[in-house]
Design brief:
This protein is an alpha/beta fold. It is built from 19 helices and twelve strands. It has helices spanning about 15-30, 50-65, 80-90, 100-115, 180-190, 200-215, 235-240, 245-250, 255-260, 275-280, 295-310, 310-315, 325-330, 345-350, 360-370, 380-395, 400-410, 415-420, 425-435, and strands at about 5, 35-40, 70-75, 95, 135-140, 145-150, 155-160, 170, 195, 220-225, 225-230, 290-295. It has a three-stranded parallel β-sheet. A three-stranded antiparallel β-sheet has the order 4-5-8. Helix 6 links the parallel strand 9 (about 195) and strand 10 (about 220-225). Helix 9 (about 255-260) packs across helix 11. The longest helix is centred in the N-terminal third of the chain and has 16 residues, at about 15-30. The structure holds glutamic acid. The site of glutamic acid has 8 residues, from loops. Glutamic acid binds near residues 9, 10, 178 and 200. It is found in: Cytoplasm. Monomer. Its EC number is 6.1.1.17.
Length: about 425
């Protein structure tokens, strides 16, 4: 069996972290098994679907490195849906309904008031058909076929179709609801595994009977627990947190991928720079049933950790030319984002005016300024510089190192000075030490 998964967004908005997580799990599963990952654009709702969102979805997947092995669009497949619908109709598995939403609502309330489950009540055979009303269509569940599957995340699932309403699959205007086209496509595209959020579990129960009715074996299902924000529910912020804003904040795609791959699983979130380890480790049996908590602060921290062992080659295209491999390696432990590297160009090459020195620090700076011109910049200049200043002034520890770091970099904290100083032009260093 070829593993084939699909990510099936409706292009009615931009992807947010929750959708991206589903896409990622589908992609990881396909890659782990040497299978195929398809993008299926669920654009049956022609009024709400927009081309700009389709383009945005492609761009976001590309940015994340989730390459697709094919793209399909539901709007190009209406003929197929029509043909399969006709078969179900001929077999009596879809049937016309004439109730108005108001009538259905009243029936639901009556049933509830009697303490009964508000399940749709089929009309008896031969019930009168109202004139001049276009019907909508329901799928006839087989009440005698219990619905069972072993979910890859949730374990054994069982639904009694008698307790379920026959789902509406087509509206009176002929347009499609999500349920049936999705099944038709999953069959036609050879989807082996459907990975999606647990909000689809009851859809799956109905869809399993649709697979059967269309003569197909249902795929395997993995329904993952939903993603929630730190405050415990799917917040507005999380629901709208798009890739563009994360990109602007300097989040690396691999950081988001590393977090979303493991969040809510029993595997630890790790600062990987390569997706291979995540492909290797994906296992739906290790996904938890509790909601996965997404924390932007955790993402920012992971991003930072990942940068600390990201090689120059991986980011060179986004770095100023002055940030050479050696300079990148010196500064990366102090970066929260790649963009911050640009702030270090002036520290290396100038122009740079050190902050005014405090009076107590002047002797150390003066001693260092006097020694600097004679120091061989190619051989551990920091050791030589601090040694000379210490000898001349008797200063040591913080009183020795901090004034020098401040004068040379303008900061109180930063990369190891032994690594940094040889990368700062000597004439610049001499100038900065003398400025105080
Ligand atoms: N378009 C559906 C959704 O976004 C797809 C669900 C599925 O994966 O089957 O919810």
């Amino acid at each position: 069996m070829t593993v084939t998964t699909r990510f099936a967004p409706s292009p009615t908005g931009s992807l947010h972290v929750g959708n991206v997580r589903t896409a990622l799990h589908n992609w990881l599963w396909a890659r782990k098994h040497g299978g195929r990952f398809l993008l299926r654009i669920d654009d049956t709702d022609l009024g709400r679907s927009k081309e700009e969102y389709v383009e945005g979805i492609r761009a976001d997947l590309g940015w994340l490195g989730l390459d697709v092995d094919g793209e399909e669009r539901q709007s190009a497949r209406f003929d197929l849906y029509e043909a399969e619908f006709a078969k179900l109709q001929a077999a009596g598995r879809v049937y016309a309904c004439y109730e108005t939403p108001e009538e259905l609502d009243i029936r639901r309330k009556i049933l509830l008031s009697r303490g009964l489950p508000p399940v749709y009540e089929r009309k008896p055979d031969g019930a009168p058909v109202p004139d001049g009303i276009a019907p909508h269509w329901r799928f006839r569940l087989d009440h005698d076929a219990p619905i069972e599957w072993t979910d890859m995340v949730r374990g054994p699932q069982h639904f009694d179709p008698k307790t379920m309403s026959d789902p509406v699959v087509r509206r009176a205007d002929g347009s499609w609801l999500y349920l049936l086209p999705s099944v038709i496509d999953d069959i036609a595209m050879g989807i082996s595994h459907v990975v999606r959020g647990e909000d689809h579990v009851s859809n799956t129960a109905a869809q399993i009977q649709m697979f059967d009715a269309l003569g197909a074996t249902p795929p395997a299902f993995a329904h993952e627990a939903l993603l929630v924000g730190t405050e415990g529910k799917l917040s507005k912020r999380l629901g709208s947190l798009g890739m563009a804003s994360l990109r602007e904040e300097g989040i690396e795609p691999i950081a988001l991928v590393a977090l979303l791959a493991r969040l809510g699983t029993s595997d630890p979130v790790e600062p990987v720079t390569d997706v291979a380890a995540l492909v290797e480790s994906i296992d739906f049996a290790r996904f938890g049933r509790a909601p996965a908590r997404f924390d932007e602060a955790e993402l920012a921290l992971l991003n930072q950790k990942i940068l600390h062992h990201t090689g120059h080659a991986a980011v060179a295209g986004r770095l100023p030319a002055a940030i050479t491999p050696a300079r990148w390696e010196a500064i990366r432990p102090n970066l929260a984002t790649v963009a911050e590297a640009a702030e270090w160009v002036a520290v290396f090459d100038g122009p740079f005016t050190p902050p005014a020195a405090e009076a107590a620090d002047r002797p150390v700076l003066a001693a260092a300024a006097a020694a600097a011109p004679g120091i061989d910049w190619g051989a551990d200049p920091w050791h030589a510089l601090t040694g000379a200043a210490k000898e001349a002034t008797g200063a040591k520890g913080r009183a020795l190192f901090l004034p020098l770091r401040r004068a040379l970099t303008g900061r109180d904290h930063g990369p190891d000075m032994g690594e940094l100083l040889p990368l700062i032009a000597k004439d610049q260093a001499v100038e900065r030490l003398s400025a105080g």
